[in-house]
Design goal:
Length: 434
């Protein structure tokens, strides 16, 4: 399709504002699984290439495309052409001419990096600063790919293991006592904690000093610290006792997955012992706000976030790690993970609440006697079928929703989803009031 044909197709689709079938892009990061996303898309994967994420949205890095017969156009280009018609005046006025959320399927075979995301002010300032410095948007050393924050939520499809936020300081003191190889990081941590008492500023400084030591010590010192730990964990009698509910299991996996050049050991292993280890059962979720250090370790999940690609990393990765920038955005406070079971709002819908203004996530369980009927959409709804098949009716027309199908329902449309069997569909939407 040449530029003139693309412009003609964009104009035609912008005038229709009906339900839009989407063709979505898979991201093939090394940590991805081999089966889940190819099966969802109906694509054989005989070469066993990693498929890590499926993106449903309009982020310019990997926008979905709108399919209309033989015509396929990028969703971000279409939304830019007709934002008020497709997103509505309220949403387009607040978030601009783009979808404010990004919906994903994650298949985590290898551990993801230890990471955190900036808040809105930090993202805007970082993006402007790197633009002024002339750092190319696709440069490996680039921290900020856009000027938006990235609150996110994950809902498990299988058992899903997560590192989430710093543990209570008393638990960290216990870890430093129980793991002798880590004790040199802060040999007086327990005494200083007792001295800090309930003073929140002193406790924050204590935690920051510990993490700063872990992140800024020379690599040779980190190697000397962690080599005995890794050797101990590799001993056959110790390895045999590892369980996934222990940080030892993930520390050894990290040492083997992220073995560095010349025998260097990834300092992200230290974070495994400092963060809460969370096991999510299928259907359970977590909301990740700005500044919370986290990592997804294993499993399959649906993720939704503000439409941003800003990540500051703290290890367990061959990618760029900017320690100073990470330290500047982190929240140095103990975090108690709040596991979300979802709120049942009807016989067909479970909604996962979050404080984010950009997104709301629901799971729709549709059966023969339980159709789903939506009110008029405010903004735009993205629907992704994960199990079974159904039919969507809107605008006096119908559209088959087979497994792996994604669609976008524009502003002002109401719709009904029915099936003769059963279907599981995740719905991303813009919460109201804004």
């Amino acid at each position: 399709m040449d530029d003139r044909d693309l412009e003609t197709a964009l104009d035609a689709l912008a005038r229709r504002s009906s339900v839009l079938p989407l063709r979505c892009q898979a991201r093939r990061y090394a940590w991805g699984g081999f089966d889940v996303i190819p099966a969802l898309l109906g694509h054989p994967n005989p070469a066993r290439e990693p498929f890590a994420e499926l993106w449903v949205g309009a982020h310019p890095v990997a926008p979905s495309s709108v399919v209309a017969g033989a015509v396929t156009v990028p969703l971000d280009r279409l939304l830019a052409r007709a934002p008020e018609r497709l997103l509505g005046p309220e949403v387009s006025a607040r978030f601009g001419a783009t979808l404010p959320y990004l919906l994903k399927v994650l298949d985590v075979r290898g551990m993801l990096s230890i990471q955190a995301h900036p808040d809105q002010r930090q993202a805007a300032e970082g993006f402007r600063r790197e633009n002024t410095a002339g750092i190319p948007i696709d440069a490996a050393r680039r921290n900020y790919k856009d000027g938006r924050h990235k609150p996110e939520m994950v809902v498990a499809l299988t058992t899903f293991w997560v590192l989430y936020g710093f543990k209570p300081l008393g638990a960290i003191a216990g870890t430093l006592d129980a793991v002798p190889e880590l004790k040199p990081l802060a040999p007086d941590f327990r005494a200083r904690l007792e001295s800090a008492g309930a003073d929140p500023v002193a406790r924050q400084r204590l935690l920051r000093a510990l993490y700063e030591r872990a992140m800024t010590s020379p690599q040779a010192e980190i190697d000397r610290l962690l080599a005995p730990l890794v050797a101990r964990l590799r001993a056959p009698e110790v390895r045999a006792a590892h369980r996934k509910d222990s940080p030892d299991f993930w520390a050894l996996r990290a040492a083997e997955q992220f073995a560095g050049p010349e025998g260097h050991i990834d300092r992200g292993i230290i974070s495994i012992y400092l963060l809460n280890l969370v096991r999510l059962a299928p259907g359970e979720g977590l909301f990740v706000p700005a500044g919370v250090l986290h990592s997804y370790l294993e499993g399959t999940a649906v993720e939704i976030m503000a439409s941003s690609d800003n990540v500051l990393r703290g290890g367990l990765t061959p990618k760029h790690v900017d320690i100073a920038e990470l330290m500047s955005i982190l929240a140095f406070a103990s975090t108690t993970p709040e596991v979300l079971g979802g709120d049942r709002t009807s016989t067909t819908e479970i909604r996962y609440p979050s404080p984010a203004k950009e997104f709301e996530l629901s799971r729709l369980d549709v059966a023969a006697a339980r159709p789903y009927r939506s009110p008029a959409v405010r903004g735009a709804d993205a629907l992704l079928v994960l199990e079974g098949g159904a039919e969507l009716r809107a605008d006096a027309g119908s559209l088959p929703l087979d497994r792996g199908v994604a669609v976008l329902v524009p502003n002002g449309r109401s719709y009904e989803i029915s099936t003769g069997g059963a279907a599981t569909i995740f719905r991303a939407s813009v919460p109201h009031p804004l």
